[in-house]
Write a structure and sequence with these properties.
Chain lengths: 337, 337
């Protein structure tokens, strides 16, 4: 059954874009610049011309609305990931909050490292240590309890540099891009290495992306009856890591359709970008390059978070557009002047 | 970012339902009966009053549009599952199609049983045999190749009794129900024990449910580069069985939000119905009871497909509505008089 209708989407800070979304196509009448926080560079033009090509009926690149799928990495692509991933900040706060119930943590690594704020010891604990911390803070409670914990934390936690909620540290140009794509009939998804249930409690309010459009790493859940009611318990067992080659796997498992646009910022997004752009038909692959130490951060090849090496080396040959945050974004955050 | 708009959904065989879907709620103006293939019984009334309650702003049961999620089992709930699951008919046809490349199957069970049409031997092969058949017919090719195989089969295969395509054996009252819910701001999902990639190639055309809204059982996929292009190979390893206690797990993993309406037909849907209806707030749980041997099939407690025992025993106590196919449906199929 086809759905015909008129969608009117308000685009943040940009007046209105009125889009007629018909069963067979779509026409967008831009009444104002839909991407006001983007400087007028080739990068912005790449987005506009891609959207025009795939939404113009009769264009050789036309894509019907139901196949207009766009995927976005989260950490470093939609919100800040430096100096540490936000989910790691959550883990650290959560270990501290739970410590009174775990006196043994005062003398057990990697918990002791967190409680002592000992980054060297934490680093020495390696990936095994991180997984141990993740399981201690993410498992052993129900999905509803975990949702409440995340919701409470995200509402109160503040980052160290900007002294703002983490959900305030989302990139204004990317919010505009999400809204612009949706106004042109795209469905937008997050495809992140982060925990899916760490993101879902807040992505709809912050990005306009509902929980069912969030794909991420996950741990096992198990149905149990507790006092006559079904609950899903979170078990300390990783079932899926949505990073690198896992991203196309996650996209296929969740969406079942190949996206035509992908946005990332690190080499963890390389396979996703290839999956989207090495396919038949017009596509758009973009990499957010963190080049602005003044307004945000500057890092790439040697960064412990969001390391970007292959993406930079291969972008030109792959046909991917690199966004230079400093040059291409007029504002980084909504609170920027 | 909220989306405001006017959705006009054509409801099969029922004229038009015009629904104003606003960011804060939704009002449906029924210009014609939205469920014309449903007889005017308590079951139809249960659907109408539920939808009215959750979509009427100011109602104590009001649910905002983004939380209006409805889940549907597929086999026996949306389309025919008797005398054998359609996916098993696909397996049988596929074994026959692949047999020339596998001369050893002529003397190896369970393949020999399929080739000889020997149901006793096939039954004796048990679950292990079925999994062997599934893997031989569902794995070893890429996701795109499998999509093409399913698409070709579903377009040409005919069932034994009605001599129609399987996608023609979908229940007209349920198509109307899907459209009616969507016209009232619901997002509709399939939650099936069937293979997710067996359903996705055709659910959008048949049910109006796009691939990203189909949840099912799945096998492992792995990213590989073939002639410079990324492909996802289907490996012979089950990763998720979306049945019984797996249904709430699948719903949570995929949707991340608890549905408010669930529709099933067998005990494989019991935990899904409990997950949806044993929660805060108004909800609707319905079971399609196959009672019409003349127009479709009649089976429940002793059936090898769609066995329904606990659902019938507990429906009243659980507050679930049982749909009596013979009494409640004026038509079963679109081709019925």
């Amino acid at each position: 059954m086809k759905r015909r209708g008129f969608l009117m989407a308000s685009v943040a800070g940009a007046g209105l874009v009125l889009a007629e979304e018909a069963g067979v196509g779509g026409i967008a009448f831009a009444q104002a610049d839909p991407l006001p926080s983007w400087n007028d560079t080739a990068q912005k033009q790449a987005i506009l011309s891609f959207v025009q090509a795939v939404t113009t009926e009769g264009s050789p690149d036309f894509v019907p609305p139901s196949e207009r799928v766009a995927v976005f990495d989260n950490d470093g692509t939609l919100w800040v990931e430096s100096p540490i991933y936000t989910q790691l900040a959550f883990v650290i706060d959560r270990v501290r909050a739970l410590a009174p119930d775990h006196p043994e943590w005062a003398s057990t690594q990697p918990f002791k490292a967190v409680l002592d704020n000992d980054l060297a010891a934490l680093s020495a604990a390696g990936e095994k240590g991180v997984i141990e911390l993740l399981m201690a803070t993410h498992a052993g409670i129900s999905t509803e309890e975990f949702d409440a914990v995340v919701t409470g934390w995200i509402a109160t936690a503040r980052d160290g540099r900007f002294k703002r909620p983490y959900t305030g540290l989302v990139y204004q140009p990317m919010l505009e891009l999400l809204a612009y794509l949706r106004a042109n009939g795209f469905e937008t998804f997050i495809v992140s290495g982060g925990g899916v249930e760490f993101m879902r409690p807040w992505t709809e309010a912050v990005y306009g992306i509902p929980p069912q459009n969030v794909i991420g790493s996950s741990i096992r859940t198990e149905l149990r009856m507790v006092e006559g009611k079904p609950v899903l318990m979170r078990l300390p067992q990783v079932v899926f890591i949505d990073d690198k080659a896992g991203k196309p796997v996650g996209i296929n498992a969740h969406i079942g359709r190949r996206p035509i646009a992908a946005f990332g910022n690190s080499d963890g997004d390389y396979e996703m970008l290839e999956w989207v752009t090495k396919a038949e038909g017009r596509s758009l692959g973009m990499i957010v390059h963190h080049t602005d130490a003044a307004r945000e951060y500057a890092y790439d090849r040697n960064s412990p978070v969001g390391r970007l090496v292959r993406g930079l080396d291969d972008a030109a040959a792959q046909g991917w557009t690199v966004i230079d945050m400093k040059a291409d974004w007029g504002r980084v955050f909504g609170f920027d002047g």
